[in-house]
């Protein structure tokens, strides 16, 4: 009888699972196109990269024909003094960045929260966001010019900061923190607003500044720090590679720059694949840890029902004054940078004899906008279709599905296997890598899922109780509730594609097909067929027309770029 009962229970359980699979069949169907693209351009490259790291890869013999060497590549790599130095530097830079960025964010967020005027708070946070929208290579060029010995001598400072290891590392960390600290600042402000709203809703008198402001801000910044576990072995490659030089390799060479210089550029595929595998494994563990910690400890601090910073009210003249001072100083510094990049270059006449559009043809400038826009459209389709199944808590296979997405999230990009896949499709020296690699931003999927579940989960349950099908719910509830979020994520993805030269530098050798940002980079290095020398005003004019569209998008879509949406950018730093 017991066997009969067990068999009957198993059949009922199986039938229940099959019934739920059929009920939610739409969720399995709509992810197929996105998963096929991910399998081809993300999962297959990382798997082949792992296999390659255990082989002595020989180009003419291919991956499967190359001899197996086991862990020899790893032993050789960890025995390489250059890699050891890069590994140590990466951890030092990352931990220092997290610390400095967190400290700046806490001070600025508490100061801005003290401003009485919501309009002034919104204006301040908009200005604070601007450095995030400036390309890293432009920031690096500006810093290099400002810190050049000839410039420092004008203020009676005889220093070579970019060539002195003891000065270079603090400078690098501070620059990176100032460029990206707007994300934890806005996250902290949203957490403060959410906490105050909860206390006011519960009719609890807000007597403790520590309870209503300091603790929520610290918790949200800790959540930001936890997110950095998923990229613990990665840094801002474009910022570092455009600031460092052989004089400071001992403190500034990171895993990313070492891999690019010693692996990809030198054609040493064994080194590049082994480094890629190490980064993937470490960051996969970090991604899992970050996901679990954020979900269990910080989810409410990041994804809440707050409307922004408008509701923060603090009747304290002392804190309002501090807020005014800090906000003004911070804003003046940023607006000075914006003036230097976007306005000042057009007040100086170039001696090169060339005009702007001779160096950067209009067709190429506009053409890359079209390419990036097309990539964003596909990206939004992938984001929406992959996020929708995660809104169903009892979806069979949901945990396995999340593990697959986290696996892809940890894989990152720029691996040697990814390069070989792109090459096998004949995309070298074409614009297609720029488009295809712009399809994927897996963290966006979790952002959309978390925002929707935190705000509209009850509405989805109501739809289910009323007998509305999943297809109906997708078009009448899910899309209408997340379309602004999707557009905001699309704006950020578009800015990321426009502001990064890495894909262009890796897959293009024909200067006639370089992206606008890659044109700027070749100008700064003095490696260009037009003979434009570094320091020419026309170079900063190129920087201006590259940066301005991103800043315009920030101003137009500022209301939709909430702290929750900006979480999607934490892995790109």
UniProtKB/TrEMBL annotation:
Where is it located? Cell membrane
Q: What are the UniProt keywords, alphabetically?
A: Cell membrane, Membrane, Transmembrane, Transmembrane helix, Transport
Q: How does it sit in the membrane?
A: Multi-pass membrane protein
InterPro entries, per database record: MetI-like_sf (IPR035906)
The transmembrane segments are 26-47, 95-115, 127-147, 167-192, 213-233, 271-294, 322-346, 366-388, 400-422, 434-452, 485-508, 538-557
Keyword Membrane assigned to the entry: answer is: yes
What protein name is recorded for this chain?
Answer: ABC transporter permease subunit
What is the organism field in this record?
Paenibacillus alginolyticus
């Amino acid at each position: 009888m017991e066997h009969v009962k067990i068999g009957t229970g198993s059949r009922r359980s199986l039938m229940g699972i099959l019934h739920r699979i059929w009920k939610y069949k739409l969720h399995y169907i709509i992810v197929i196109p996105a998963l096929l693209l991910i399998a081809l351009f993300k999962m297959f490259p990382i798997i082949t990269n792992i296999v390659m790291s255990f082989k002595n890869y020989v180009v003419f013999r291919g991956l499967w024909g190359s001899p197996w060497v086991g862990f020899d590549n790893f032993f050789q790599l960890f025995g390489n003094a250059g890699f050891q130095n890069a590994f140590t530097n990466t951890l030092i830079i990352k931990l220092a960045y997290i610390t400095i960025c967190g400290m700046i964010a806490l001070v600025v967020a508490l100061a801005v929260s003290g401003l009485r005027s919501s309009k002034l708070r919104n204006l301040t946070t908009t200005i604070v966001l601007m450095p995030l929208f400036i390309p890293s290579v432009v920031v690096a060029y500006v810093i290099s010019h400002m810190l050049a010995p000839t410039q420092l001598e004008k203020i009676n400072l005889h220093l070579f900061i970019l060539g002195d290891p003891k000065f270079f590392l603090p400078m690098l960390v501070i620059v990176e923190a100032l460029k990206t600290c707007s994300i934890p600042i806005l996250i902290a402000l949203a957490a403060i607003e959410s906490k105050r709203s909860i206390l006011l809703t519960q009719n609890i008198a807000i007597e403790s500044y520590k309870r209503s402001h300091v603790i929520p801000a610290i918790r949200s910044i800790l959540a930001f720090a936890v997110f950095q576990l998923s990229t613990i072995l990665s840094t801002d490659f474009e910022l570092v590679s455009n600031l460092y030089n052989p004089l400071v390799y001992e403190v500034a060479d990171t895993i990313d720059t070492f891999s690019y210089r010693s692996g990809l550029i030198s054609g040493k595929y064994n080194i590049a694949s082994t480094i890629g595998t190490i980064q993937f494994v470490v960051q996969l563990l970090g991604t899992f840890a970050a996901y679990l910690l954020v979900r269990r400890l910080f989810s409410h601090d990041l994804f809440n029902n707050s409307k922004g910073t408008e509701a923060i009210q603090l009747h304290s003249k002392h804190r309002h004054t501090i807020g005014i001072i800090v906000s003004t100083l911070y804003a003046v510094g940023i607006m000075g940078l914006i003036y230097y990049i976007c306005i000042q270059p057009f007040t100086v006449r170039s001696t090169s004899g060339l005009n702007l559009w001779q160096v950067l043809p209009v067709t190429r400038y506009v053409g890359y906008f079209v390419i990036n826009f097309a990539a964003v459209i596909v990206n939004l389709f992938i984001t929406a279709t992959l996020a929708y199944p995660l809104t169903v808590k009892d979806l069979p296979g949901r945990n396995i599905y999340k593990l697959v997405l986290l696996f892809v999230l940890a894989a990152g990009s720029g691996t040697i296997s990814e390069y070989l896949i792109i090459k096998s499709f004949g995309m070298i020296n074409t614009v297609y890598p720029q488009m295809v690699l712009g399809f994927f931003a897996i963290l966006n999927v979790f952002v959309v899922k978390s925002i929707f579940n935190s705000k509209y989960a009850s509405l989805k349950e109501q739809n289910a109780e009323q007998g509305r099908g999943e297809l109906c719910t997708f078009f009448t509830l899910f899309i209408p509730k997340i379309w602004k979020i999707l557009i905001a994520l699309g704006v950020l993805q578009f800015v990321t594609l426009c502001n990064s030269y890495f894909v262009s530098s890796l897959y293009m050798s024909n200067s006639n097909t370089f992206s606008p940002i890659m044109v700027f980079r070749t100008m700064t290095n003095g490696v260009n067929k037009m003979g434009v020398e570094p320091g020419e005003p026309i170079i900063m004019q190129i920087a201006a027309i590259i940066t301005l569209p991103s800043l315009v998008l920030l101003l137009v879509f500022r209301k939709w770029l909430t702290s929750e949406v900006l979480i999607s950018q934490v892995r790109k730093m």
